[in-house]
Write a structure and sequence with these properties.
The protein is of the alpha+beta class. The protein has two domains: about 220 residues, Endonuclease III, domain 1, CATH 1.10.340.30; about 130 residues, Nucleoside Triphosphate Pyrophosphohydrolase, CATH 3.90.79.10. About 45% of the residues lie in helices and about 15% in strands. Strands 1, 2, 3, 4, 5, 6 and 7 form a seven-stranded mixed beta sheet that branches. Strand 5 and strand 6 form a beta hairpin. The protein is elongated.
Length: about 350
């Protein structure tokens, strides 16, 4: 394939058809960095309002570095993959203290920051500084796999390295920012996972999959394992009109977020005595279980969750947490100021109704 023809067709299409997005209206490396972090694992339409609120609240690395991590997580609430927010907060602190608030334009230095991998580095440095670094994300891998009929599964370990080579060979050295955004835009708008719009694709005459009518066969993927199922029993423990909320450890799944205490169970309902005993181990409190409030279901990346939520009363004891980092006795109003993960949000209406709020 002749790279010049590829670049001319792609960049011509992008100049006419690209979407107007808020992070494309700025040359600020920090703002571009924030957008790229949010766009990992998140749809554009979902990310836009989060991005705008985030930049309004934390317009510079210094503002983000000075913020309490709880306020950062609260602003990120609902966006998921909270390690992104924690890493961005930590990285902003380093940029503010070590680099005078300026995002470093050296790839090795930038990648030394928490949460900055090859994709983030290539995207930010090419768009903000014109560095000739090819991006490789899901959209890029899909475009290249069809364009060249690449048989390597896109979800296999080592796929990034395999697709990085052809992406680097095709990138336009004069316009790396537009090129990278164009390939990703093409994958998002035209070369979609299902029902690609090949008739509207500027690269259709160059695409091997289009020529051989094998578009539906690419990209190749290894069969994914069935996500395991977990069950939790969640306790809303009431004491003098307030409820016990606990904070998850800062590292790990949903790190730093708040929730109602929960214990793993087998999914059988009715064993309230066993649940109360497990909650006593988890919280240090003796409780009485009044009734089951509701059942929720939630899907995470690597497992599915079913949760039974119980209204409970504090009987005796002081809080002594087994696995949580901290606790507060909260009202519904004060709970709204804490970063709460989505699974707990799913029963907030039922809880408010039960409490008559």
């Amino acid at each position: 394939m002749e790279p010049e023809i590829f670049r001319k067709r792609l960049l011509g299409w992008y100049a006419t058809h690209h979407r107007r997005l808020p992070w494309r209206e700025t040359s600020d490396p920090y703002a571009i960095w924030v957008s790229e972090v949010m766009l990992q694992q998140t749809r554009v339409a979902t990310a836009i309002p989060y991005y705008q609120r985030f930049i309004d609240r934390f317009p510079t690395p210094g503002h983000l570095a000075d913020a309490d991590i709880q306020s950062v997580l609260k602003l990120w609430e609902g966006l998921g993959y909270y390690a992104r927010a924690r890493n961005l907060h930590r990285a902003a602190g380093i940029v503010d203290s070590r680099f005078n608030g300026q995002v470093p334009d050296n790839p090795a230095v930038f990648q030394s920051l928490p949460g900055v991998g090859d994709y983030i580095a290539a995207a930010v440095l090419s768009i903000a500084f014109g560095r000739v670094l090819a991006v490789v994300d899901g959209n890029v891998k899909r475009v290249l796999s069809r364009l060249m009929e690449i048989d390597s599964p896109v979800n296999r370990n080592g796929a990034h390295k395999i697709f990085k080579a052809p992406a680097t060979g095709l990138i336009c050295p004069k316009h790396p920012a537009d090129f990278n955004q164009a390939v990703m835009e093409l994958g998002a708008l035209i070369c979609r996972p299902k029902k690609p719009a090949c008739g509207a694709c500027p690269l259709s005459v160059l695409c091997l999959a289009n020529r051989h009518h094998t578009t539906a066969d690419f990209p190749k993927r290894d069969a994914s394992r069935k996500a395991p199922h977990r069950h939790l029993s969640i306790g809303v423990i009431l004491k003098k009109g307030k409820m016990l909320a606990v904070q998850r450890p800062m590292e790990g799944l949903l790190g730093g977020l708040w929730e109602f205490p929960a214990v793993p169970t087998d999914g059988e309902q009715g064993d309230w005595k066993g649940f109360a005993e497990m909650m006593a181990t988890e919280t240090g409190l003796t409780i009485a279980v009044d009734r089951r409030l509701t059942r929720i279901r939630h899907a995470y990346t690597h497992f599915r969750l079913t949760g039974d939520v119980y209204l409970c009363r504090h009987v005796a004891g002081r809080v002594r947490l087994k696995s949580a980092k901290g606790h507060r006795w909260v009202t519904l109003r004060s709970l709204a100021h804490l970063p709460l993960h989505k699974a707990n949000h799913k029963f907030m209406d039922a809880l408010a109704a039960a409490l008559g709020r």
